[in-house]
Amino acid sequence: MGASRVDMKVVLLGKEYGGKTSLVERYLHDRFAGDTPYQNVRNYNATIGAAFGAKKVDIGDKVLTLGVWDTAGSERYEAMSRIYYRGAKAAIVCYDLTDRTSFERARFWVNELMKNEEGCKIYLCGTKKDLVISDKRTREVDYHMTTDYAEEIHAEVHETSSKTGENIFELFTKIAKDFASNPENIKKERDKDKETLDLYEDNKKKFGCCG
Ligand SMILES: Nc1nc2c(ncn2[C@@H]2O[C@H](COP(=O)(O)OP(=O)(O)OP(=O)(O)O)[C@@H](O)[C@H]2O)c(=O)[nH]1
């Protein structure tokens, strides 16, 4: 595997202020910007356009490189987010457990994906779990409602906290394992490797060298 190759594309979608960037930051860099004083409800760093990061995941018998696209939740960037989910093998559709309306937005993205991106596996992700554990009254999205919906759309539900790190590593590892266990993906990987090898052999024959 080439050093810079990404094995699978993962995209994050969901309402603004829903916790996508924090999830990615916790996963890629093990940090939480919400701890800094300038981060508050009125003045958080909203994503503009989209951001990209990559990380290697060891899933036991192999190591995969995940390319993670964090999209902007603002509806102003909706058209742009559509560009970013193209070709994604997994989508983490985020909703904020303390904001009922964010689940409506999650349903919107699920419909989009089901219509346009057949090969993309959907992971529903309820964010900010620490807030609903410390103060149960703040929960606005019922867990059983989300699992019923997930069953309907053949997705799964993960509830995470970027503040504490709960379930985040597990979520991305599950995504990588699901990808690797799908024979379709393995076949595509083999075809890709074969193409590279064929090109290498062709070049060797043509130029008598190996580039
Ligand atoms: N307590 C707590 N706060 C969180 C958590 N995740 C995110 N936040 C806070 O929620 C706010 C929004 O988080 P972001 O990660 O920027 O949300 P986003 O979905 O990327 O927002 P957009 O860029 O607008 O799409 C920030 O103030 C975060 O600090 C969490 O797990 N727990």
From TrEMBL:
Which Gene Ontology BP terms does the record give? autophagy; protein transport
Q: Which cofactor does it need?
A: Mg(2+)
Enzyme Commission number(s): 3.6.5.2
Molecular function, one GO term: GTP binding
Broadest EC class assigned to this enzyme: hydrolase
Where does it mainly reside?
cytoplasm
Q: Where in the cell is it found?
A: Cytoplasm, Cytoskeleton, Spindle; Cytoplasm, Cytosol; Cytoplasm, Perinuclear region; Cytoplasmic vesicle, Autophagosome membrane
Per the UniProt record, which residue ranges are transmembrane? none
What's its catalytic activity?
GTP + H2O = GDP + phosphate + H(+)
Q: One Pfam family this chain carries?
A: Ras
Gene3D superfamilies per the UniProt record, alphabetical? P-loop containing nucleotide triphosphate hydrolases
Q: Which UniProt keywords apply?
A: Autophagy, Cytoplasm, Cytoplasmic vesicle, Cytoskeleton, GTP-binding, Hydrolase, Lipoprotein, Magnesium, Membrane, Metal-binding, Nucleotide-binding, Phosphoprotein, Prenylation, Protein transport, Transport
GO CC annotation terms, alphabetical: autophagosome membrane; cytoplasmic vesicle; cytosol; perinuclear region of cytoplasm; spindle
| Membrane topology, record value | Lipid-anchor
Q: Tell me the function of this protein.
A: The small GTPases Rab are key regulators of intracellular membrane trafficking, from the formation of transport vesicles to their fusion with membranes. Rabs cycle between an inactive GDP-bound form and an active GTP-bound form that is able to recruit to membranes different sets of downstream effectors directly responsible for vesicle formation, movement, tethering and fusion. RAB24 is an atypical RAB protein that presents low GTPase activity and thereby exists predominantly in the GTP-bound active state. RAB24 is required for the clearance of late autophagic vacuoles under basal conditions.
Q: How does it assemble?
A: Interacts with ZFYVE20. Does not interact with the GDP dissociation inhibitors ARHGDIA and ARHGDIB.
Q: Which family does it belong to?
A: Belongs to the small GTPase superfamily. Rab family.
Protein's UniProt name: Ras-related protein Rab-24
Q: What is the lineage of its organism?
A: Eukaryota, Metazoa, Spiralia, Lophotrochozoa, Annelida
